């Protein structure tokens, strides 16, 4: 902000009688004639007078701020006062308004696709291809182990007793077999083949007079499930 009269200009201005020049002269007079102990209080009073002069439209906003800057420069306590024209708050015209920064939008996203539910949401962090590969690998391992057990005559990994009697659990192997059976059933449903529970018209599925379900897999192995059980058990 450009300053107005200095030095001799102040003296000449005070003689002309303009409100601005008289107030500037009064600031100098207070500084020269007031003790340091009372200087701060006198300058605060003078700051209020300057604001009154502006409210009464005897000085403009620029003169108001210049006078307060003079008071601040000599105030012993370093007091500051509210200005009318703050340089930090720039006012732009319509033709001077700065452009807003361009947002980083990235690639376009289809909102309908984003809002629709995903069929593979249950897979967690796995992608669809990875899940399919996992199911295929588990199925291959299951078939391989079954073939090896049949060839060697060892059915221990596929044996479990009647759940109505003393059922035998094979810990990890039993759990793995159950997981593999579920994967095989899922693959059959995805490929359009009916699950064991829905193969009433298939020769590989039947229900006996006791309500026990029987199902034969692709390798000729028969499985059974009692009426009150959810798990399938291999028939030896």
Please tell me about this protein's structure:
Mean pLDDT is 71; it is low at 5-14 and 158-170. Strands 1-2-3-4 form a four-stranded antiparallel sheet, with no helix packed on it. The protein has helices at 8-16, 19-33, 36-55, 61-74, 111-115, 128-152, 171-190, and strands spanning 205-207, 213-216, 222-225, 233-234. Helices cover 46% and strands 6% of the residues. The chain starts with 7 loop residues before the first helix and ends with a strand. The protein has two domains: 8-74; 127-234, no CATH class. Helix 1 crosses helix 2 and helix 2 (19-33) packs antiparallel against helix 3. It has 236 residues and is mainly α.
The SSE string, one letter per element, is HHHHHHHEEEE
Task: Summarize the main sheet.
Answer: 4 strands, antiparallel
The number of distinct structural domains comes to 2
Gyration radius, rounded: 47 Å
């Amino acid at each position: 902000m450009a300053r107005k009269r200095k030095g001799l200009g102040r003296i000449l201005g005070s003689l002309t009688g303009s409100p601005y020049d008289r107030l500037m002269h009064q600031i100098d007079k207070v500084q020269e004639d007031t003790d340091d102990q009372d200087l701060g209080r006198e300058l605060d009073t003078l700051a209020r007078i300057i604001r009154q002069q502006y409210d009464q439209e005897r000085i403009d906003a620029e003169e108001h701020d210049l006078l307060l800057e003079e008071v601040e420069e000599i105030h012993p306590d370093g007091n500051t006062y509210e200005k009318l024209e703050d340089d930090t708050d720039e006012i732009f015209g319509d033709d001077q308004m700065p452009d807003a920064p361009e947002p980083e939008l990235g690639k376009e996203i289809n909102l309908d696709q984003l809002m629709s539910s995903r069929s593979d949401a249950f897979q967690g962090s796995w992608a669809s291809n990875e899940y399919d590969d996992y199911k295929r690998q588990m199925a291959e391992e299951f078939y391989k182990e079954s073939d090896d057990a049949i060839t060697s005559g060892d059915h221990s990994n596929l044996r479990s007793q009647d759940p109505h009697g003393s059922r035998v659990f094979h810990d990890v192997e039993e759990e793995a077999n159950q997981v593999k059976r579920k994967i095989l059933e899922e693959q059959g449903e995805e490929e359009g083949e009916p699950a064991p529970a829905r193969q009433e018209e298939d020769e590989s599925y039947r229900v006996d007079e006791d309500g026990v379900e029987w199902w034969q897999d692709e390798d000729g192995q028969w499985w059974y499930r009692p009426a009150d059980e959810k798990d399938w058990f291999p028939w030896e």
